[in-house]
Amino acid sequence: MTMLSSRSSRLSALIGASLALSLMIGASTALAKGPDGGFNRGGGFTGPGPALSTVQQARDMRDDSPVTLQGHIVQHLGDDHYLFKDNTGTINVEIDHKRWQGQNVGPNDLVEISGEVEKDWSELGIDVKRIIKK
Prior knowledge:
Layout: H1 2-30, H2 55-59, E1 66-78, E2 81-86, E3 89-95, E4 111-119, E5 124-133
Parallel strand pairs: 3-5
Antiparallel strand pairs: 1-2, 1-4, 2-3, 4-5
């Protein structure tokens, strides 16, 4: 009986060690550095994104329309509000602190912003969901 319980506990230890190793390998693969310098957390679409729009085109879009713009953030207006400019005009954008993801951006830096058009009776702007420094 002692020999059987000894084998059983060694088998349990071996299975436990194998499982732990598998989990560590899987975790390190899931967190492997991606081609954009960030960490890959399971993959996603790698093809082209939405077509770029201009500030002028965004002004004519409906409320909550998805939009992607390329240009410059030229001024901080206070809190999470900034002035975005491309070659067709300017528009107010709202960029929550978490959207910056550690990026430092100045007025001379080209950025791509994606978000939603926000329209109400007296205001027009973009609620930014993603910002990428180019």
